[in-house]
Protein backbone atom coordinates (compact mmCIF):
# COMPACT_ATOMS: atom_id res chain seq x y z
CA UNK A 1 0.00 0.00 0.00
CA UNK A 2 1.27 3.46 -0.85
CA UNK A 3 2.23 5.73 2.02
CA UNK A 4 -0.77 7.94 2.63
CA UNK A 5 1.51 10.69 3.85
CA UNK A 6 3.30 11.18 0.54
CA UNK A 7 2.17 14.38 -1.21
CA UNK A 8 0.30 13.27 -4.33
CA UNK A 9 1.91 13.92 -7.70
CA UNK A 10 -0.92 15.61 -9.56
CA UNK A 11 -0.75 16.41 -13.25
CA UNK A 12 -2.66 19.54 -14.10
CA UNK A 13 -4.28 21.06 -17.12
CA UNK A 14 -2.39 24.20 -18.16
CA UNK A 15 -4.90 27.01 -18.15
CA UNK A 16 -6.77 25.41 -15.29
CA UNK A 17 -9.69 24.29 -17.45
CA UNK A 18 -11.48 20.99 -17.77
CA UNK A 19 -10.14 18.82 -20.61
CA UNK A 20 -12.43 19.01 -23.59
CA UNK A 21 -13.58 22.56 -22.88
CA UNK A 22 -11.90 25.02 -25.23
CA UNK A 23 -10.47 28.10 -23.57
CA UNK A 24 -8.98 30.95 -25.64
CA UNK A 25 -5.20 30.94 -25.52
CA UNK A 26 -3.54 33.49 -23.28
CA UNK A 27 -2.19 36.45 -25.28
CA UNK A 28 1.28 36.10 -23.79
CA UNK A 29 3.38 34.08 -21.40
CA UNK A 30 2.67 30.65 -19.96
CA UNK A 31 -0.96 29.60 -19.62
CA UNK A 32 -2.19 30.36 -16.09
CA UNK A 33 -2.10 27.25 -13.92
CA UNK A 34 -4.79 26.37 -11.42
CA UNK A 35 -2.85 25.59 -8.27
CA UNK A 36 -5.49 25.72 -5.53
CA UNK A 37 -4.36 26.84 -2.08
CA UNK A 38 -0.67 27.71 -2.19
CA UNK A 39 0.10 29.70 0.94
CA UNK A 40 -0.47 28.20 4.35
CA UNK A 41 -0.25 30.18 7.56
CA UNK A 42 -1.70 30.63 11.05
CA UNK A 43 -4.42 32.91 9.70
CA UNK A 44 -5.41 30.43 7.00
CA UNK A 45 -4.49 32.96 4.32
CA UNK A 46 -4.77 31.66 0.78
CA UNK A 47 -3.05 33.81 -1.84
CA UNK A 48 -3.63 33.15 -5.51
CA UNK A 49 -1.29 34.03 -8.34
CA UNK A 50 -2.35 37.27 -10.00
CA UNK A 51 -3.02 37.43 -13.72
CA UNK A 52 -1.41 40.22 -15.67
CA UNK A 53 -3.42 42.34 -18.11
CA UNK A 54 -3.67 41.36 -21.73
CA UNK A 55 -0.78 42.17 -24.04
CA UNK A 56 -0.87 44.55 -26.94
CA UNK A 57 -1.72 41.94 -29.54
CA UNK A 58 -0.78 43.09 -33.03
CA UNK A 59 -0.07 46.80 -32.57
CA UNK A 60 2.01 47.40 -35.67
CA UNK A 61 2.50 44.19 -37.56
CA UNK A 62 2.04 45.89 -40.94
CA UNK A 63 3.22 49.45 -40.48
CA UNK A 64 6.80 49.02 -41.73
CA UNK A 65 7.93 50.28 -45.09
CA UNK A 66 5.97 52.26 -47.65
CA UNK A 67 2.92 50.00 -47.86
CA UNK A 68 3.64 48.63 -51.34
CA UNK A 69 3.00 45.05 -50.16
CA UNK A 70 1.80 45.11 -46.58
CA UNK A 71 -0.49 42.13 -47.02
CA UNK A 72 2.36 40.12 -48.52
CA UNK A 73 4.65 41.14 -45.68
CA UNK A 74 2.18 40.04 -43.05
CA UNK A 75 1.68 36.68 -44.76
CA UNK A 76 5.43 36.18 -45.00
CA UNK A 77 5.95 37.08 -41.36
CA UNK A 78 3.17 34.77 -40.23
CA UNK A 79 4.65 31.99 -42.35
CA UNK A 80 8.03 32.62 -40.74
CA UNK A 81 6.36 32.69 -37.33
CA UNK A 82 4.86 29.28 -37.92
CA UNK A 83 8.28 27.99 -38.84
CA UNK A 84 9.71 29.76 -35.82
CA UNK A 85 7.69 27.44 -33.63
CA UNK A 86 9.80 24.53 -34.89
CA UNK A 87 10.11 21.69 -32.45
CA UNK A 88 12.36 18.66 -32.55
CA UNK A 89 11.93 16.55 -35.65
CA UNK A 90 11.48 19.68 -37.73
CA UNK A 91 7.71 19.80 -37.15
CA UNK A 92 6.31 23.32 -37.32
CA UNK A 93 3.68 24.05 -34.71
CA UNK A 94 1.93 27.13 -36.06
CA UNK A 95 0.20 29.26 -33.49
CA UNK A 96 -3.33 28.08 -34.20
CA UNK A 97 -6.23 26.96 -31.98
CA UNK A 98 -5.46 23.38 -33.01
CA UNK A 99 -1.90 23.70 -31.77
CA UNK A 100 -2.91 25.52 -28.61
CA UNK A 101 -5.24 22.59 -28.01
CA UNK A 102 -2.14 20.48 -27.46
CA UNK A 103 -2.01 21.94 -23.98
CA UNK A 104 -5.16 20.23 -22.78
CA UNK A 105 -3.87 16.70 -22.38
CA UNK A 106 -2.98 16.55 -18.72
CA UNK A 107 -5.59 15.70 -16.14
CA UNK A 108 -6.57 18.26 -13.55
CA UNK A 109 -6.22 17.48 -9.88
CA UNK A 110 -6.98 18.90 -6.47
CA UNK A 111 -4.97 19.11 -3.30
CA UNK A 112 -5.98 16.63 -0.67
CA UNK A 113 -4.74 16.65 2.87
CA UNK A 114 -3.60 13.47 4.56
CA UNK A 115 -4.79 12.74 8.07
CA UNK A 116 -1.90 11.71 10.26
CA UNK A 117 -1.89 10.82 13.94
CA UNK A 118 1.80 10.90 14.73
CA UNK A 119 1.77 13.05 17.83
CA UNK A 120 3.04 16.21 16.09
CA UNK A 121 0.91 19.36 16.04
CA UNK A 122 -1.63 19.52 13.23
CA UNK A 123 -1.29 21.86 10.30
CA UNK A 124 -2.38 25.38 11.38
CA UNK A 125 -5.97 26.27 10.53
CA UNK A 126 -6.44 22.87 8.89
CA UNK A 127 -4.95 24.09 5.62
CA UNK A 128 -4.29 21.75 2.71
CA UNK A 129 -0.80 20.99 1.42
CA UNK A 130 0.66 23.32 -1.17
CA UNK A 131 -0.16 22.61 -4.80
CA UNK A 132 2.56 24.85 -6.16
CA UNK A 133 4.33 22.81 -8.81
CA UNK A 134 8.04 22.39 -8.50
CA UNK A 135 10.37 23.84 -11.10
CA UNK A 136 11.08 20.41 -12.56
CA UNK A 137 7.62 18.92 -12.05
CA UNK A 138 5.77 21.73 -13.79
CA UNK A 139 8.08 21.34 -16.77
CA UNK A 140 7.30 17.63 -16.88
CA UNK A 141 3.57 18.37 -16.67
CA UNK A 142 3.74 20.63 -19.72
CA UNK A 143 5.88 18.11 -21.56
CA UNK A 144 3.24 15.43 -21.02
CA UNK A 145 1.28 16.92 -23.93
CA UNK A 146 1.41 15.69 -27.51
CA UNK A 147 3.74 18.59 -28.32
CA UNK A 148 6.04 17.34 -25.57
CA UNK A 149 5.94 13.84 -27.02
CA UNK A 150 7.02 15.24 -30.40
CA UNK A 151 9.95 17.01 -28.75
CA UNK A 152 11.02 13.90 -26.88
CA UNK A 153 11.35 11.90 -30.10
CA UNK A 154 14.10 14.25 -31.25
CA UNK A 155 16.07 14.40 -28.00
CA UNK A 156 19.35 12.48 -27.70
CA UNK A 157 18.60 9.08 -26.20
CA UNK A 158 21.94 8.57 -24.47
CA UNK A 159 25.52 9.68 -24.37
CA UNK A 160 28.82 9.86 -22.56
CA UNK A 161 31.30 12.25 -21.01
CA UNK A 162 34.51 13.23 -22.81
CA UNK A 163 37.79 14.67 -21.53
CA UNK A 164 36.55 18.23 -21.99
CA UNK A 165 34.10 20.43 -23.90
CA UNK A 166 36.22 20.72 -27.05
CA UNK A 167 36.76 16.96 -27.21
CA UNK A 168 33.03 16.36 -26.74
CA UNK A 169 32.18 18.89 -29.45
CA UNK A 170 34.60 17.37 -31.93
CA UNK A 171 33.51 13.77 -31.35
CA UNK A 172 29.74 14.16 -31.09
CA UNK A 173 27.73 13.80 -34.32
CA UNK A 174 24.57 15.91 -34.54
CA UNK A 175 21.84 13.69 -35.96
CA UNK A 176 18.68 15.53 -34.89
CA UNK A 177 16.59 17.37 -37.44
CA UNK A 178 16.95 21.12 -36.98
CA UNK A 179 17.13 24.29 -39.03
CA UNK A 180 20.06 25.50 -36.93
CA UNK A 181 23.56 25.18 -38.27
CA UNK A 182 25.41 22.23 -36.76
CA UNK A 183 28.26 24.47 -35.73
CA UNK A 184 29.56 23.74 -32.22
CA UNK A 185 30.76 27.31 -31.70
CA UNK A 186 27.35 28.74 -32.51
CA UNK A 187 25.67 26.07 -30.37
CA UNK A 188 27.84 26.87 -27.34
CA UNK A 189 27.25 30.60 -27.76
CA UNK A 190 23.48 30.05 -27.99
CA UNK A 191 23.24 27.96 -24.83
CA UNK A 192 25.91 29.43 -22.54
CA UNK A 193 25.00 33.08 -23.18
CA UNK A 194 21.84 35.13 -23.59
CA UNK A 195 22.46 35.24 -27.32
CA UNK A 196 25.35 34.90 -29.73
CA UNK A 197 27.01 38.05 -31.02
CA UNK A 198 29.79 38.44 -33.59
CA UNK A 199 32.18 39.20 -30.72
CA UNK A 200 31.23 36.12 -28.68
CA UNK A 201 31.60 33.86 -31.70
CA UNK A 202 34.97 35.42 -32.55
CA UNK A 203 36.14 35.02 -28.94
CA UNK A 204 35.26 31.31 -28.87
CA UNK A 205 37.00 30.66 -32.19
CA UNK A 206 40.08 32.63 -31.15
CA UNK A 207 40.38 31.20 -27.62
CA UNK A 208 39.10 27.70 -28.33
CA UNK A 209 36.07 26.07 -26.72
CA UNK A 210 37.89 24.80 -23.61
CA UNK A 211 39.58 28.10 -22.81
CA UNK A 212 36.37 30.08 -23.36
CA UNK A 213 34.38 27.78 -21.05
CA UNK A 214 37.08 27.95 -18.37
CA UNK A 215 37.08 31.75 -18.59
CA UNK A 216 33.29 31.87 -18.22
CA UNK A 217 33.50 29.59 -15.18
CA UNK A 218 35.63 32.23 -13.44
CA UNK A 219 33.47 35.35 -13.86
CA UNK A 220 35.28 37.29 -11.15
CA UNK A 221 38.32 37.41 -13.48
CA UNK A 222 36.33 39.03 -16.31
CA UNK A 223 36.37 42.82 -16.28
CA UNK A 224 33.02 44.61 -16.04
CA UNK A 225 31.67 45.90 -19.33
CA UNK A 226 30.99 49.63 -19.90
CA UNK A 227 27.28 48.97 -19.34
CA UNK A 228 27.99 47.30 -16.01
CA UNK A 229 29.96 50.36 -14.95
CA UNK A 230 26.90 52.43 -15.83
CA UNK A 231 24.88 50.47 -13.28
CA UNK A 232 26.04 53.16 -10.86
CA UNK A 233 23.19 55.15 -12.44
CA UNK A 234 20.81 52.79 -10.62
CA UNK A 235 21.73 54.02 -7.13
CA UNK A 236 19.73 51.53 -5.07
CA UNK A 237 21.65 48.53 -6.46
CA UNK A 238 24.58 49.27 -4.16
CA UNK A 239 22.47 49.84 -1.03
CA UNK A 240 22.15 47.31 1.76
CA UNK A 241 18.71 46.41 3.04
CA UNK A 242 19.32 48.59 6.09
CA UNK A 243 20.30 51.55 3.88
CA UNK A 244 17.16 51.10 1.81
CA UNK A 245 15.08 51.12 5.00
CA UNK A 246 16.89 54.15 6.39
CA UNK A 247 16.61 56.10 3.12
CA UNK A 248 13.07 55.06 2.21
CA UNK A 249 11.66 58.59 2.42
CA UNK A 250 14.37 60.10 0.22
CA UNK A 251 14.09 57.22 -2.26
CA UNK A 252 10.34 57.73 -2.48
CA UNK A 253 10.84 61.42 -3.16
CA UNK A 254 13.18 60.55 -6.04
CA UNK A 255 10.80 57.92 -7.37
CA UNK A 256 13.42 55.20 -6.87
CA UNK A 257 12.02 51.68 -6.58
CA UNK A 258 14.75 49.29 -5.39
CA UNK A 259 12.93 46.09 -6.40
CA UNK A 260 12.42 47.44 -9.94
CA UNK A 261 15.96 48.81 -10.24
CA UNK A 262 17.18 45.30 -9.35
CA UNK A 263 15.26 43.91 -12.34
CA UNK A 264 16.53 46.76 -14.53
CA UNK A 265 20.10 46.02 -13.53
CA UNK A 266 19.65 42.30 -14.17
CA UNK A 267 18.46 43.03 -17.70
CA UNK A 268 21.46 45.30 -18.31
CA UNK A 269 23.80 42.50 -17.27
CA UNK A 270 22.00 39.95 -19.43
CA UNK A 271 22.33 42.19 -22.48
CA UNK A 272 25.80 43.66 -22.02
CA UNK A 273 27.86 41.71 -19.48
CA UNK A 274 30.86 39.72 -20.68
CA UNK A 275 30.16 37.28 -17.80
CA UNK A 276 27.43 35.61 -19.79
CA UNK A 277 27.49 32.10 -18.35
CA UNK A 278 27.37 33.59 -14.86
CA UNK A 279 24.29 35.63 -15.78
CA UNK A 280 22.62 32.54 -17.27
CA UNK A 281 23.24 30.73 -13.99
CA UNK A 282 21.93 33.67 -11.95
CA UNK A 283 18.73 33.48 -13.97
CA UNK A 284 18.60 29.71 -13.49
CA UNK A 285 18.92 29.94 -9.71
CA UNK A 286 16.44 32.81 -9.54
CA UNK A 287 13.90 30.42 -11.08
CA UNK A 288 14.98 27.41 -9.02
CA UNK A 289 15.30 29.13 -5.61
CA UNK A 290 12.64 31.65 -6.46
CA UNK A 291 11.65 34.72 -4.49
CA UNK A 292 9.45 37.11 -6.44
CA UNK A 293 10.68 40.66 -7.01
CA UNK A 294 7.20 42.02 -6.32
CA UNK A 295 6.22 40.93 -2.82
CA UNK A 296 5.43 42.83 0.35
CA UNK A 297 8.96 43.49 1.57
CA UNK A 298 10.67 43.07 -1.77
CA UNK A 299 11.46 46.76 -2.03
CA UNK A 300 13.75 46.52 0.99
CA UNK A 301 15.10 42.98 0.82
CA UNK A 302 14.92 41.45 -2.66
CA UNK A 303 17.99 43.21 -4.07
CA UNK A 304 20.05 41.99 -1.12
CA UNK A 305 18.79 38.44 -1.72
CA UNK A 306 19.90 38.67 -5.35
CA UNK A 307 23.32 40.05 -4.44
CA UNK A 308 24.12 38.21 -1.17
CA UNK A 309 22.48 34.84 -1.84
CA UNK A 310 21.99 34.10 -5.54
CA UNK A 311 24.88 36.02 -7.10
CA UNK A 312 27.27 35.20 -4.29
CA UNK A 313 26.76 31.44 -4.73
CA UNK A 314 25.65 31.12 -8.37
CA UNK A 315 28.98 29.56 -9.37
CA UNK A 316 29.78 28.22 -5.93
CA UNK A 317 27.79 25.76 -3.85
CA UNK A 318 24.05 25.16 -3.89
CA UNK A 319 23.98 23.90 -0.27
CA UNK A 320 25.68 27.15 0.78
CA UNK A 321 23.11 29.09 -1.25
CA UNK A 322 20.17 27.31 0.37
CA UNK A 323 21.57 27.80 3.88
CA UNK A 324 22.12 31.51 3.17
CA UNK A 325 18.63 31.84 1.68
CA UNK A 326 17.06 30.34 4.79
CA UNK A 327 18.65 33.04 6.95
CA UNK A 328 17.81 35.94 4.64
CA UNK A 329 14.94 38.34 5.42
CA UNK A 330 13.61 38.16 1.85
CA UNK A 331 12.83 34.43 1.95
CA UNK A 332 11.75 34.49 5.59
CA UNK A 333 9.21 37.23 4.89
CA UNK A 334 8.16 35.95 1.46
CA UNK A 335 7.14 32.59 2.95
CA UNK A 336 5.88 33.93 6.30
CA UNK A 337 8.54 32.24 8.42
CA UNK A 338 8.65 35.32 10.61
CA UNK A 339 5.19 34.32 11.89
CA UNK A 340 6.17 30.77 12.86
CA UNK A 341 6.60 29.88 16.52
CA UNK A 342 6.29 26.74 18.57
CA UNK A 343 2.68 27.43 19.57
CA UNK A 344 1.59 28.60 16.08
CA UNK A 345 3.61 26.81 13.43
CA UNK A 346 3.68 28.14 9.88
CA UNK A 347 4.56 25.50 7.27
CA UNK A 348 5.23 27.63 4.21
CA UNK A 349 9.03 27.74 4.26
CA UNK A 350 9.41 24.18 5.56
CA UNK A 351 7.20 22.88 2.75
CA UNK A 352 8.82 24.87 -0.05
CA UNK A 353 12.30 23.96 1.20
CA UNK A 354 11.35 20.34 0.47
CA UNK A 355 8.99 20.66 -2.47
CA UNK A 356 10.60 23.49 -4.42
CA UNK A 357 14.14 24.12 -3.21
CA UNK A 358 15.58 20.66 -2.54
CA UNK A 359 14.26 17.13 -3.00
CA UNK A 360 11.18 18.00 -5.07
CA UNK A 361 7.58 16.87 -4.84
CA UNK A 362 8.55 13.26 -5.61
CA UNK A 363 11.69 13.35 -3.47
CA UNK A 364 10.37 10.96 -0.84
CA UNK A 365 9.17 13.31 1.90
CA UNK A 366 5.84 12.92 3.69
CA UNK A 367 3.42 15.28 5.36
CA UNK A 368 4.96 14.24 8.66
CA UNK A 369 8.36 15.39 7.33
CA UNK A 370 6.89 18.79 6.45
CA UNK A 371 5.47 19.26 9.93
CA UNK A 372 8.65 18.09 11.60
CA UNK A 373 10.69 20.50 9.48
CA UNK A 374 8.29 23.33 10.28
CA UNK A 375 8.72 22.64 13.98
CA UNK A 376 12.50 22.57 13.66
CA UNK A 377 12.56 25.91 11.84
CA UNK A 378 10.41 27.79 14.35
CA UNK A 379 12.13 30.78 15.87
CA UNK A 380 13.77 31.96 12.67
CA UNK A 381 12.60 35.39 11.62
CA UNK A 382 13.35 39.04 10.99
CA UNK A 383 13.72 41.86 13.48
CA UNK A 384 14.54 45.44 12.52
CA UNK A 385 15.44 44.27 9.02
CA UNK A 386 17.90 41.61 10.12
CA UNK A 387 17.83 37.84 10.51
CA UNK A 388 17.20 36.72 14.08
CA UNK A 389 16.80 33.42 15.87
CA UNK A 390 14.27 33.74 18.69
CA UNK A 391 15.02 30.83 20.97
CA UNK A 392 11.93 31.53 23.07
CA UNK A 393 9.76 30.82 20.02
CA UNK A 394 11.68 27.73 18.96
CA UNK A 395 10.20 24.26 19.34
CA UNK A 396 12.39 21.96 21.41
CA UNK A 397 12.08 18.21 20.98
CA UNK A 398 13.28 15.35 18.83
CA UNK A 399 12.79 15.73 15.07
CA UNK A 400 13.18 13.31 12.17
CA UNK A 401 12.96 14.48 8.57
CA UNK A 402 13.88 12.35 5.55
CA UNK A 403 16.47 10.43 7.56
CA UNK A 404 17.81 13.52 9.35
CA UNK A 405 17.26 13.13 13.08
CA UNK A 406 18.30 15.25 16.04
CA UNK A 407 17.29 15.59 19.69
CA UNK A 408 16.89 19.36 19.11
CA UNK A 409 16.95 19.99 22.84
CA UNK A 410 19.78 22.50 23.25
CA UNK A 411 19.23 25.46 25.54
CA UNK A 412 22.00 27.34 23.70
CA UNK A 413 20.41 29.54 20.96
CA UNK A 414 23.50 29.38 18.78
CA UNK A 415 23.61 25.58 18.84
CA UNK A 416 19.87 25.32 18.25
CA UNK A 417 20.20 27.56 15.19
CA UNK A 418 23.11 25.47 13.92
CA UNK A 419 20.91 22.36 13.99
CA UNK A 420 18.63 24.06 11.45
CA UNK A 421 21.62 24.83 9.24
CA UNK A 422 22.66 21.18 9.47
CA UNK A 423 19.19 20.09 8.37
CA UNK A 424 19.16 22.53 5.42
CA UNK A 425 22.58 21.24 4.36
CA UNK A 426 21.32 17.66 4.68
CA UNK A 427 18.35 18.17 2.34
CA UNK A 428 20.53 20.20 -0.07
CA UNK A 429 22.82 17.16 -0.39
CA UNK A 430 20.05 14.57 -0.50
CA UNK A 431 20.13 12.20 -3.52
CA UNK A 432 16.70 13.47 -4.60
CA UNK A 433 18.03 17.04 -4.58
CA UNK A 434 20.99 15.97 -6.69
CA UNK A 435 18.63 14.53 -9.27
CA UNK A 436 16.27 17.51 -9.10
CA UNK A 437 19.08 20.01 -9.71
CA UNK A 438 20.59 17.79 -12.41
CA UNK A 439 17.33 17.50 -14.33
CA UNK A 440 16.65 21.23 -14.05
CA UNK A 441 20.13 22.10 -15.35
CA UNK A 442 19.81 19.62 -18.21
CA UNK A 443 16.43 21.10 -19.10
CA UNK A 444 17.90 24.61 -19.17
CA UNK A 445 21.00 23.78 -21.21
CA UNK A 446 20.15 20.70 -23.28
CA UNK A 447 16.54 19.82 -24.00
CA UNK A 448 13.00 20.21 -22.73
CA UNK A 449 13.07 16.42 -22.34
CA UNK A 450 16.64 15.83 -21.17
CA UNK A 451 18.14 12.35 -21.59
CA UNK A 452 18.14 10.18 -18.49
CA UNK A 453 21.78 9.29 -19.14
CA UNK A 454 22.82 12.92 -18.68
CA UNK A 455 20.61 13.51 -15.66
CA UNK A 456 22.05 10.43 -13.96
CA UNK A 457 25.65 11.53 -14.56
CA UNK A 458 25.02 15.10 -13.42
CA UNK A 459 23.30 13.85 -10.26
CA UNK A 460 26.38 11.76 -9.49
CA UNK A 461 28.68 14.75 -10.11
CA UNK A 462 26.51 16.85 -7.77
CA UNK A 463 26.77 14.23 -5.04
CA UNK A 464 30.51 13.60 -5.37
CA UNK A 465 31.28 17.33 -5.38
CA UNK A 466 28.83 18.14 -2.55
CA UNK A 467 26.68 20.45 -4.63
CA UNK A 468 29.45 22.51 -6.24
CA UNK A 469 28.25 24.25 -9.40
CA UNK A 470 31.39 24.47 -11.53
CA UNK A 471 32.01 20.69 -11.74
CA UNK A 472 28.36 20.29 -12.77
CA UNK A 473 28.73 22.77 -15.61
CA UNK A 474 32.05 21.38 -16.78
CA UNK A 475 30.57 17.88 -16.86
CA UNK A 476 27.53 19.13 -18.75
CA UNK A 477 29.64 20.91 -21.40
CA UNK A 478 31.82 17.79 -21.68
CA UNK A 479 28.83 15.57 -22.44
CA UNK A 480 27.81 14.30 -25.85
CA UNK A 481 24.15 15.01 -24.98
CA UNK A 482 24.84 18.74 -24.80
CA UNK A 483 26.56 18.90 -28.18
CA UNK A 484 24.03 16.58 -29.86
CA UNK A 485 21.05 18.74 -28.85
CA UNK A 486 21.42 21.51 -31.45
CA UNK A 487 18.14 23.36 -31.94
CA UNK A 488 16.30 21.57 -29.13
CA UNK A 489 15.51 24.66 -27.05
CA UNK A 490 13.17 27.54 -27.92
CA UNK A 491 13.79 30.95 -26.42
CA UNK A 492 11.29 32.14 -23.86
CA UNK A 493 10.01 35.74 -24.27
CA UNK A 494 12.72 37.34 -22.14
CA UNK A 495 15.44 35.28 -23.80
CA UNK A 496 14.17 36.25 -27.26
CA UNK A 497 14.14 39.96 -26.46
CA UNK A 498 17.54 40.00 -24.75
CA UNK A 499 19.05 38.02 -27.65
CA UNK A 500 17.58 40.59 -30.05
CA UNK A 501 19.27 43.48 -28.23
CA UNK A 502 22.52 41.55 -28.23
CA UNK A 503 22.58 40.53 -31.89
CA UNK A 504 21.60 44.01 -33.09
CA UNK A 505 24.52 45.47 -31.15
CA UNK A 506 22.39 47.97 -29.23
CA UNK A 507 24.66 50.17 -27.08
CA UNK A 508 24.02 51.42 -23.53
CA UNK A 509 24.81 55.07 -24.34
CA UNK A 510 22.06 57.54 -25.20
CA UNK A 511 21.46 58.16 -28.89
CA UNK A 512 21.61 61.57 -30.58
CA UNK A 513 17.81 61.74 -30.66
CA UNK A 514 17.39 61.39 -26.91
CA UNK A 515 15.60 64.22 -25.12
CA UNK A 516 15.78 64.30 -21.32
CA UNK A 517 12.22 64.25 -20.04
CA UNK A 518 12.87 62.88 -16.55
CA UNK A 519 15.20 64.96 -14.42
CA UNK A 520 15.42 62.26 -11.76
CA UNK A 521 16.63 59.37 -13.95
CA UNK A 522 19.36 59.04 -16.57
CA UNK A 523 18.76 57.92 -20.14
CA UNK A 524 20.25 54.52 -19.31
CA UNK A 525 17.93 54.06 -16.33
CA UNK A 526 14.91 55.14 -18.36
CA UNK A 527 15.77 52.79 -21.20
CA UNK A 528 16.20 49.81 -18.90
CA UNK A 529 12.83 50.49 -17.31
CA UNK A 530 11.24 50.51 -20.76
CA UNK A 531 12.72 47.07 -21.49
CA UNK A 532 11.48 45.91 -18.08
CA UNK A 533 7.96 47.18 -18.84
CA UNK A 534 7.96 45.53 -22.26
CA UNK A 535 8.88 42.20 -20.69
CA UNK A 536 6.03 42.58 -18.22
CA UNK A 537 3.77 42.82 -21.28
CA UNK A 538 5.32 39.64 -22.65
CA UNK A 539 4.74 37.81 -19.37
CA UNK A 540 8.34 37.09 -18.36
CA UNK A 541 10.90 39.29 -16.65
CA UNK A 542 13.67 38.56 -14.13
CA UNK A 543 12.24 37.29 -10.84
CA UNK A 544 8.77 38.07 -12.13
CA UNK A 545 6.83 34.90 -11.27
CA UNK A 546 4.59 35.87 -8.30
CA UNK A 547 4.51 32.36 -6.82
CA UNK A 548 7.56 30.50 -5.43
CA UNK A 549 7.83 27.96 -8.25
CA UNK A 550 9.70 30.10 -10.80
CA UNK A 551 9.00 30.27 -14.53
CA UNK A 552 8.59 27.05 -16.53
CA UNK A 553 11.56 26.30 -18.77
CA UNK A 554 9.94 24.39 -21.62
CA UNK A 555 8.69 25.56 -25.00
CA UNK A 556 5.08 24.39 -24.74
CA UNK A 557 4.52 26.54 -21.64
CA UNK A 558 5.12 29.70 -23.67
CA UNK A 559 3.33 29.01 -26.97
CA UNK A 560 1.47 32.21 -27.76
CA UNK A 561 0.87 34.10 -30.98
CA UNK A 562 0.50 37.39 -29.11
CA UNK A 563 3.86 36.98 -27.41
CA UNK A 564 5.58 36.14 -30.68
CA UNK A 565 4.16 39.11 -32.58
CA UNK A 566 4.83 41.47 -29.68
CA UNK A 567 8.46 40.34 -29.72
CA UNK A 568 8.69 40.96 -33.47
CA UNK A 569 7.30 44.46 -32.98
CA UNK A 570 9.92 45.20 -30.34
CA UNK A 571 12.58 43.98 -32.77
CA UNK A 572 11.18 46.43 -35.33
CA UNK A 573 11.48 49.27 -32.81
CA UNK A 574 15.10 48.36 -32.12
CA UNK A 575 15.96 48.16 -35.81
CA UNK A 576 14.42 51.60 -36.26
CA UNK A 577 16.28 52.96 -33.19
CA UNK A 578 13.04 54.03 -31.53
CA UNK A 579 14.32 53.65 -27.97
CA UNK A 580 16.50 56.74 -28.09
CA UNK A 581 17.95 56.03 -24.63
CA UNK A 582 20.32 53.65 -26.42
CA UNK A 583 22.51 53.71 -29.52
CA UNK A 584 22.00 51.55 -32.60
CA UNK A 585 23.62 50.44 -35.79
CA UNK A 586 21.50 51.67 -38.67
CA UNK A 587 20.00 48.69 -40.50
CA UNK A 588 21.75 49.54 -43.76
CA UNK A 589 25.07 49.45 -41.82
CA UNK A 590 24.59 46.01 -40.26
CA UNK A 591 26.43 44.44 -43.20
CA UNK A 592 29.70 46.25 -43.87
CA UNK A 593 29.71 45.70 -47.64
CA UNK A 594 26.16 44.88 -48.74
CA UNK A 595 25.98 42.67 -51.86
CA UNK A 596 24.32 44.16 -54.89
CA UNK A 597 21.67 41.45 -55.38
CA UNK A 598 18.74 40.81 -53.05
CA UNK A 599 19.38 37.10 -52.49
CA UNK A 600 23.04 37.60 -51.60
CA UNK A 601 22.12 40.53 -49.35
CA UNK A 602 19.62 38.37 -47.40
CA UNK A 603 22.32 35.72 -46.99
CA UNK A 604 24.80 38.27 -45.65
CA UNK A 605 22.26 39.86 -43.32
CA UNK A 606 21.22 36.44 -41.97
CA UNK A 607 24.87 35.62 -41.28
CA UNK A 608 25.16 38.90 -39.36
CA UNK A 609 21.94 38.58 -37.33
CA UNK A 610 21.41 34.84 -36.81
CA UNK A 611 24.98 33.71 -37.56
CA UNK A 612 24.13 31.22 -40.29
CA UNK A 613 22.38 30.85 -43.63
CA UNK A 614 18.62 30.48 -43.88
CA UNK A 615 16.85 27.65 -45.63
CA UNK A 616 15.79 28.23 -49.23
CA UNK A 617 12.14 28.48 -48.15
CA UNK A 618 12.87 31.05 -45.45
CA UNK A 619 15.09 33.03 -47.79
CA UNK A 620 12.28 33.17 -50.33
CA UNK A 621 9.76 34.23 -47.68
CA UNK A 622 12.02 37.08 -46.66
CA UNK A 623 12.51 38.15 -50.26
CA UNK A 624 8.70 38.16 -50.41
CA UNK A 625 8.66 40.61 -47.52
CA UNK A 626 10.62 43.00 -49.73
CA UNK A 627 8.68 42.06 -52.85
CA UNK A 628 11.79 41.31 -54.93
CA UNK A 629 13.45 38.30 -56.54
CA UNK A 630 16.79 36.87 -55.53
CA UNK A 631 18.50 38.27 -58.63
CA UNK A 632 17.07 41.78 -58.30
CA UNK A 633 19.65 44.50 -57.77
CA UNK A 634 19.21 46.49 -54.55
CA UNK A 635 21.08 49.26 -52.77
CA UNK A 636 22.31 49.28 -49.15
CA UNK A 637 18.80 50.12 -47.92
CA UNK A 638 17.39 47.13 -49.83
CA UNK A 639 15.54 49.76 -51.87
CA UNK A 640 13.90 51.02 -48.69
CA UNK A 641 12.96 47.60 -47.30
CA UNK A 642 16.03 46.87 -45.15
CA UNK A 643 14.19 47.33 -41.82
CA UNK A 644 11.41 44.95 -42.89
CA UNK A 645 13.97 42.39 -44.12
CA UNK A 646 16.01 42.54 -40.89
CA UNK A 647 12.87 42.23 -38.83
CA UNK A 648 11.75 39.19 -40.82
CA UNK A 649 15.12 37.49 -40.23
CA UNK A 650 14.65 38.08 -36.51
CA UNK A 651 11.25 36.36 -36.82
CA UNK A 652 12.89 33.26 -38.28
CA UNK A 653 13.33 30.00 -36.37
CA UNK A 654 17.09 30.57 -36.45
CA UNK A 655 16.55 33.43 -33.97
CA UNK A 656 13.76 31.84 -31.92
CA UNK A 657 15.72 28.63 -31.33
CA UNK A 658 18.79 28.46 -29.14
UniProtKB/TrEMBL annotation:
Coiled coil (residue ranges): none
Recorded superkingdom: Bacteria
Ranges of biased composition (kind: Polar residues): 125-136
Annotated InterPro entries: DUF1800 (IPR014917)
Pfam families per record: DUF1800
Transmembrane segments: 76-95
Signal sequence segment: none
Protein name: DUF1800 domain-containing protein
Organism of derivation: Micromonospora wenchangensis
